[in-house]
Design a protein that fits this description.
Elements (H helix, E strand, L loop, with lengths): L3 E3 L5 E3 L3 E2 L5 H14 L3 E3 L7 H10 L8 E6 L6 H15 L4 E6 L7 H13 L3 E7 L3 H7 L9 E5 L7 H10 L2 E5 L11 H10 L3 H11 L3 E2 L6 H8 L8 H8 L17
Parallel strand pairs: 3-4, 4-5, 5-6, 6-7, 7-8, 8-9, 9-10
Antiparallel strand pairs: 1-2
Helix pairs in contact: 1-2, 1-9, 2-3, 3-4, 7-8
Family: Belongs to the aldo/keto reductase family.
InterPro entries: AKR, Aldo/ket_reductase_CS, NAD(P)_OxRdtase_dom_sf, NADP_OxRdtase_dom
Protein name: Aldo/keto reductase
């Protein structure tokens, strides 16, 4: 069982996927092979992760038709700018060695280059070279600035998001604008798995703390890309489609917010 969302391009994207940050060589390839076998259909990588070759190998080695998989990659900060972004896209396509990329993102909103980078993504989309384009780490001020020069609305905004960093206003803003919000590090790199409130909810629903967090995001309409190269965890993370969290408990989890970041604050790039 896998739930999908329809992007503003008309493309369908799984709500749950695999993030492959900080995975290299055989570990990355094996993780993606296991994930696809387990039922994952969304794989999220980036030029910055230096594992596009391995991800492409795993995709081609799978017995799943390319059209059933959704592949995301991102332009590296050092490759931003109009012409360099176009070159970077070609390099990613070559490394992945697949016919097309489903979603291409601006990885971080680098001040000096983010406008030209976005316009390059629009060109790639308009030329049919990528199915959808979007942004990552774009908090509200970045989206506001983007709207001043963008000709198309991003399909996806991928940000750090969890019950402990509940960006409710950003979620609402993206929903109003027709942008799909996607959460990376939704499991807070394991830092909150012993939170007694979370553990109590896990026991109540007969699920793990990680499954509670992922289900919470799903019920908010947020796509999530938890990272794991462990087969047991991969199976656990995708096993969230057979239960629902009550509205009362959803509000309870919303209240876990403490604006906890485990990754850099994008606003440091704004000024």
């Amino acid at each position: 069982m896998q739930l999908y969302t329809t992007l503003n391009t008309g493309q369908t994207m799984p709500l749950l996927g695999l993030g492959v940050y900080d995975m290299y060589n055989q570990e990355a390839e094996q993780a993606v092979e296991w994930a696809i076998e387990t039922g994952y259909r969304l794989i999220d990588t980036a030029s910055m992760y230096e594992n596009e070759v391995e991800i492409g190998n795993a995709i081609r080695n799978s017995n799943i038709a390319r059209g059933e998989l959704f592949v995301t990659t991102k332009v590296h900060n050092q490759d931003q700018g109009y012409d360099s972004t176009l070159r970077a896209f070609e390099q990613s396509l070559k490394k992945l060695s697949i016919d097309y990329i489903d979603l291409y993102l601006v990885h971080w909103p680098v001040k000096a280059t983010r406008k030209e980078t976005w316009l390059a993504l629009e060109h790639l989309y308009q030329e049919g070279m990528v199915r959808s384009v979007g942004v990552a780490n774009y908090l509200s001020p970045f989206l506001e600035e983007l709207s001043e020069y963008a000709n198309i609305v991003p399909a996806v905004n991928q940000v750090e998001f969890s019950p402990y960093l509940f960006l409710e206003d950003l979620l609402t803003e993206c929903q109003v604008k027709g942008i799909q919000l996607q959460a990376y590090t939704p499991l807070v790199r394991g830092q909150k798995m012993t939170d007694p409130r979370l553990v109590a909810l896990a026991e109540k629903y007969g699920k793990s703390p990680a499954q509670i967090i992922l289900r919470w995001a799903l019920q908010h309409g947020v796509s999530t890309i938890p990272k794991s190269s462990n087969l047991k965890r991969l199976k656990e993370n995708i096993d969230i489609f057979d239960f629902a969290i009550s509205s009362e408990d959803m509000r309870l989890i919303d209240g876990f917010d403490e604006q906890l970041r485990v990754v850099d604050d994008p606003m440091e790039m704004f000024y």
